[in-house]
Structure formats: C-alpha cells, structure tokens
Amino acid sequence: MIFDNYDLWFRMSKKSEPPQLELRHLRYFLMLAKERHFGRAAERLKIAQPNLSQQIQKLEKIVGSRLLDRTRKGIRLTPAGESLAAGGGRTLDQAERAMQDARRAGRGELGKLRVTYVASAAYNGALTSMIAEYRRSYPNVELELSELEMRQQLNALAEGSVDICYVRPPVELPEGIATIRILEEPTILALPATHRLAQRARVNVRSLTNEVFITPRHDPGVSFHQHTVAACKAAGFLPQLGPQGRDFMTIASMVAVGLGVAIVPRSVSCVTLPGVCYREFTGHTIMADLSIAFRKSDPSEAVRAFVRYSRSSGSGRLQP
User: Whole-model pTM?
Assistant: First the structure.
C-alpha cells in the first residue's frame, strides 16, 4: 500500500506546477544517494525525516522523473537518479567555489587593478615596494601596470579606464578624484657635466639666475613646474623656463646635451647618464610628494582594499 500511494502521488504531482530548484534539494538528494536510507540521511543532514522525504518529492517534481525506488530493504536510484547523483556533486562544488569567490571579491581579494604611474615613481622604489607588498597580501588580484603622463593618468582615472594612479602633486584633480600622499622626497639639481658649477658639492640656486630651466610637460602651477618656480622665487628671481620633457629621463638627457638645468627628484640620480651630474642645492628646501589618486566612490572592493592599504603604509619620507 505504501508503494501504491507513492506511485499515485508521483503521477498526480506531475500535473501541478513544479517548484523551483534550490541547492538544498541537491544537497539532500546527494546525501540520500550516499546513505541509501532516509533515516540515516536525515540524521546526517540534521533535519527531520518527513522533511527530507518532502524535499526529495519536490526535487522529483522539478526533474519530472522518479529519482529513486523504495523497497523494503531501502532505496535504490533510478537511471535518472544515477545521472543526477553524478552531475549534482559537480554542481554543488561549483556553487561552493562561486560563493567562496564572491566572498573573496567582497573583501577585495579578487578582481583586477589597473595601475598607472609617472616614471619617477619607479626610481625611488615606492611603486615597486608597495606593489610587491600588496601582492603578498592580495595574490589573486590581477594587476595591470603601465607608465603614463600625469594628466593622461588623471583623465583616464576620471573616465574609469584605470583604477589607481601614482602622481606628483600639486595638480588639479578632476571631480570625484582624491589623493593620498605616500611619500615625499628631496629635490636636487641636474646640471650638464661641463657646467661651471658642476665641481661644487652644493649649488646655491641664486647662482643659476641666468640659466634656462627645463621642466616636465606640465601646466603652470603643476608638480615640478611649480617646484622649479618656487625654488627660484625663494632665491630672489623668476626662472627662465625653456624646453619641456616627457619624463625625468628625457629631461636628464636634455640637460646632458646642454639645453639647460633642471630641478628633479633626488631618486632620479639612481639612473646615471653620460654628460649629466646631480648636485644638492642650497636655499629654499623643496620636498616633492608622490601620491596615489583614486575615485572616491569606486565600487570595486579591490580598489578600496588598495586605498586602505595605501593609507596604512604611507606617508614615508626620503631624507635629504
């Protein structure tokens, strides 16, 4: 009689709208397929046996086929049940991996981070050391690094095509962009090796009144354009600004061939070029900042994690 009632229920249930599949249906069924006994399966699942029977019935309605045959000795899987048991485990494994990945992404441990930087960020080691330390804490975040001029970086950041920018303030920021200072370092003079002051250990900026100053390709009041003007004003004169270079290596090459002198970050001196020498200067001390720029309302947890990391690791200072 029990089996007749079960057959009747199965035929009638196919006429009604099937319920929606839930992962618990698969989990319950796989445990039952393993134990081949409702009582033991319910005990391991920590649910009541009638509840387990009800959920298996719902699953059979969803599948549209009987998944098991009940006998006096227990249960055995039908061909449909065998098929579901084989594929259901893979489905649960994939769902669990997806949940783990979602949790990790929510903590900023997964995703992609597109980072751009001004070339001088690599000279002082700030870029490489920060990225290396971040990679140790977030090894599964995909990093994409590229060098780019500062204004191009900020435009790309505002447009959403990059996530983090290493820039050298002062610079006007697009709306919605914020910065965190991570490092400041002294500035020095780059002189042609044949310059009349090249033999001095320290050079007074006032002695460069008649020199042409080479600056990066920046607008007035931005970064090393501003630093150059500030140092010269403090020495009592306005600098004669000459050609501009894309980056500090280009500027150093321009100095080497005699196109002028330049105020540069001290870290630039780690890359030696023939025909150029670097000297500390006396007068007004100019400290150059290195900052990261980011979107204030960025939804990416990977970006937010990098910003939190940057706040905790900065601000350092390279001593004169």
Answer: 0.70
